[in-house]
Amino acid sequence: VKETGKNNYELFMESMKRKIIDKLDLESDLRHAIEKEEFVLFYQPQIALATGEIIGVEALIRWEREGVGLVQPMEFIPAAEESSLIIPLGEWVLKTACKQNVKWIKSGIKPVLMAVNLSSKQFQQRNLVEMIERILDETGMDPTLLELEITESTAMQDIDFTIKVLKKLKEKGIRISLDDFGTGYSSLNYLKMLPIDSLKIDKSFVHDLTNSPSEETIAKSVISLAHKLNLLVVAEGVETKAQLELLKNHMCDKVQGYLLSKPVPPNEAEKLLRKAKSE
Ligand code: C2E
Ligand code: CA
Ligand code: CA
Ligand code: CA
């Protein structure tokens, strides 16, 4: 009897099946993880370059997945987004971040901004503004300390809709930051139209900053343009002293990155905040 190995097609189908099952497992685990409260927020400090002080933190989600350990957001946020689980999850993130901010202030820590990421699907939700208002109410969060980060690509999906929603949020005193700036295709005209407070230069640009003079020129002009539009500039992914110095020289307002601190669990973030200055 001739031993037939599996042909390419069969192997392909098996791997497809595996992928589909993995995806379903992930979705069902995610669903249960919300109920089991397996998520945690880590916080990464944002530092004002002029003073060296921590003036904010960005909340970044992690999943303590049973039997797996700490799972990074890139491994589950896309699935959460696809399955719409991002809606309850995003609500949990916002509520937890607001509660944390209030708790820190009550314990005597100097108030800092709390930056929270909004996914595209969350941003398209019709009741987004109401949901945020409710959470502000429930937690007692000062809206002027809340900074919502939406990516450039989310903002550009439907510019009129974006402007409408952002205006409502701004009326509440909430700040808006344009995340991952430079990775999408926002024309500068649009940038002018958006009611935002700051933009975050994507870490891919920061990474190349000290490698080539042209990258430096780009960064320099983005910063000066942003300032002309009355926007603050945050550089994310700052890993080296050289990058920091260069950003300082070009008048970047805030920095965030491993050089200053990784995202850390709440108790460690609290310690950093109590120290106030970060070297
Ligand atoms: P992001 O919003 O662009 O967040 C910045 C990412 O850069 C974070 O990755 C952070 O840990 C990382 N980072 C910070 N400093 C450095 C550095 O110096 N070098 C490098 N190479 N990376 C640095 P993280 O925490 O893995 O999050 C990845 C992405 O997942 C976020 O990108 C955001 O898009 C998404 N995400 C995280 N938490 C949430 C959340 O609560 N809600 C939503 N919708 N998305 C989230
Ligand atoms: Ca972000
Ligand atoms: Ca970013
Ligand atoms: Ca990103």
UniProtKB/TrEMBL annotation:
Domain EAL, first and last residues per copy: 23-277
Q: Quote the protein name from its UniProt record.
A: PAS domain S-box/diguanylate cyclase (GGDEF) domain-containing protein
Question: Which organism is this entry from?
Answer: Acetivibrio clariflavus (strain DSM 19732 / NBRC 101661 / EBR45)
Could you say which residues of the full protein are shown? Answer: 330 to 608 of 616
